[in-house]
Design a protein that fits this description.
26% of the residues lie in helices and 36% in strands. It has 187 residues and is of the alpha+beta class. The chain has one domain: 3-Layer(aba) Sandwich (Aminopeptidase). It has a 9-stranded mixed sheet, with helices on both faces. The two termini are 23 Å apart. It comes from Amycolatopsis cynarae. It holds the Pfam family Acetyltransf_3. This is GNAT family N-acetyltransferase.
């Protein structure tokens, strides 16, 4: 389960992680992973320049102040150390159809610690229990086996391959679509 907290803005608390709104002072921590070519290898952005990271932070800070918030781009922080180690996001893509999408990215130093799994579970619970979403989807590149494994661990099912889904670094790439359904929502 998760615990919602409203200290200095929005946050979700897990066993080892705190997912909270970004703050301007997160810039160096975000840039540490967002500028890493290996971390951004499968993303539709990056590796970030310093200006790219500043633009990202300005955007997520504005989203957090939105009266009708539909995007939750959150800093992932280790509860014990207080260190920002990644970013996790849940976006409501349709309020009418109760749909959302999730994603995450982590600093290479914390790969294989189960952080993506914990953050993904927190986002699914939040989306289903608090936002009332019925369907939450995610995509990953077919060759990103670690991401696919996380999506399956958090209860998402593979729904198929989207051919030529994204234009990434000069070439069209396929994506694999995953989704989780909240059978009790939207009846």
């Amino acid at each position: 389960m998760f615990e919602a907290c409203e200290r200095d803005g929005f946050c979700l608390m897990g066993e080892r992680l705190l997912l909270r709104d970004f703050v301007a002072s997160d810039e160096l921590s975000v840039h540490a992973f967002a500028s890493d070519r290996e971390v951004t290898r499968y993303t539709g952005w990056g590796p970030n320049s310093a200006e790219d990271t500043r633009v990202f932070l300005r955007g997520v800070l504005a989203q957090a102040r939105s009266a009708e918030r539909s995007e939750f781009n959150l800093a992932v922080v280790e509860r014990d150390s207080g260190r920002l180690v990644g970013s996790a996001a849940l976006r409501v893509t349709s309020r009418e159809h109760a749909r959302g999408e999730l994603g995450y990215v982590f600093h290479r130093e914390v790969w294989s610690r189960g952080y993506a799994t914990e953050a993904g579970r927190l986002l699914l619970l939040f989306g289903f229990e608090r936002l009332g979403l019925r369907r939450i989807a995610a995509t990953c590149r077919p060759e990103n086996v670690a991401c696919a494994r996380v999506l399956e661990k958090i209860g998402m099912r593979c729904e198929g391959r989207l051919r030529s889904h994204v234009f990434l670094r000069g070439t069209w790439r396929d994506s694999v679509l995953y989704a989780a359904i909240n059978e009790t929502a939207g009846s």
